[in-house]
């Protein structure tokens, strides 16, 4: 969920807690991407709100593409994002995905214009925002490369990804309280699991925005990358490339067991992990991986 960002707030981060009281009035050039795509990258022109490319043969890069709205998350954008991720999940040539926005904003929140006049009957009957959780059903790993504002729905979107890399400029927050509502895309629940009750309460009840340094200290992100425009995307793609070189079956199994840790007791989780570990002995990749280790050579995984 979200709010718009005023010009004054962009100039003065200390005013971020009051962002919801103003509407952003800044227009950004639509043709100023924050990253350079490699020669192998080829944008998919079938989408209106996202840009997809292949910076590496086995890596799908998805860039949110609503520059004039600071990548505010509207329903059509989420439909396109979900479709792109589902297609990549079925594509054997894709090993991992990277999701990013722009240097100014990963995503500044949900689209307030879309939701401000909705009524309870409408949002309840039509399960408004429920499709956001489709991202968590993707089997392959998704890496969020966050620069600038990741607020409201943007923060929730990052939290739904498997790994978060942040640039030094990244700012995270759940300011929905300033709009008279609360997070509706999972922010309160995922924050409580990741950073604990007290810190989640602070973010949800005050709407305070935290820096990349605080997010790193609190364990909300994997790490902060180095300075430089596009550096967070570069490092996310490099990580996705590394993951794509592993056994896809083992990678998906690893993602599955980590996620299950949030749903089970420790005893249940240990047993579940062990059973998944056992099951991998039925794969060709386990045989190849261990044989390659014993023979001191690089494994040639067939994802079978």
From TrEMBL:
Record bears the keyword Protein transport: no
The organism's place on the tree of life at top rank: Eukaryota
Keyword Lipid metabolism: yes
Top EC group: lyase
Single GO MF annotation: enoyl-CoA hydratase activity
One Pfam family hit: ECH_1
Catalytic activity, EC: 4.2.1.17
GO cellular component terms, A-Z: mitochondrion
UniProt name for this protein: Probable enoyl-CoA hydratase, mitochondrial
Organism: Macrolepiota fuliginosa MF-IS2
């Amino acid at each position: 969920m979200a709010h718009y960002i005023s010009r004054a707030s962009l100039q003065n981060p200390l005013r971020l807690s009051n962002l919801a009281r103003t509407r952003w009035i800044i227009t950004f050039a639509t043709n100023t991407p924050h990253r350079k795509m490699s020669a192998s990258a080829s944008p998919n022109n079938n989408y209106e709100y996202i840009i997809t490319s292949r910076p590496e043969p086995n890596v799908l890069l998805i860039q949110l593409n609503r520059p004039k709205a600071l990548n505010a998350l509207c329903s059509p954008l989420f439909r396109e994002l979900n479709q792109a991720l589902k297609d990549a999940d079925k594509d054997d040539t894709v090993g991992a995905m990277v999701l990013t926005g722009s240097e100014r904003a990963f995503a500044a929140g949900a689209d307030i214009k879309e939701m401000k006049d909705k009524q309870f009957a409408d949002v309840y009957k039509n399960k408004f925002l429920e499709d956001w959780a489709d991202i968590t059903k993707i089997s392959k790993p998704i890496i969020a490369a966050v620069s600038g504002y990741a607020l409201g729905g943007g923060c929730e979107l990052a939290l739904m990804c498997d790994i978060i890399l942040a640039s030094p400029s990244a700012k995270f927050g759940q300011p929905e309280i300033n709009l008279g509502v609360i997070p509706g895309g999972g922010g309160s629940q995922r924050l409580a699991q990741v950073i604990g009750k007290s810190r989640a309460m602070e973010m949800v009840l005050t709407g305070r925005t935290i820096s990349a340094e605080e997010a790193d200290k609190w364990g909300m992100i994997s790490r902060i990358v180095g300075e430089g425009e596009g550096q967070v995307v570069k490092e996310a793609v490099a990580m996705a490339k590394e993951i794509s070189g592993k056994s896809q079956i083992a990678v998906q199994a690893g993602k599955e067991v980590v996620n299950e840790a949030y749903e089970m007791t420790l005893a249940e989780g240990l047993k579940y992990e062990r059973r998944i570990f056992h099951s991998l002995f039925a794969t060709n990749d386990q045989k190849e991986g261990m044989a390659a280790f014993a023979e001191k050579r690089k494994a040639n995984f067939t994802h079978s």
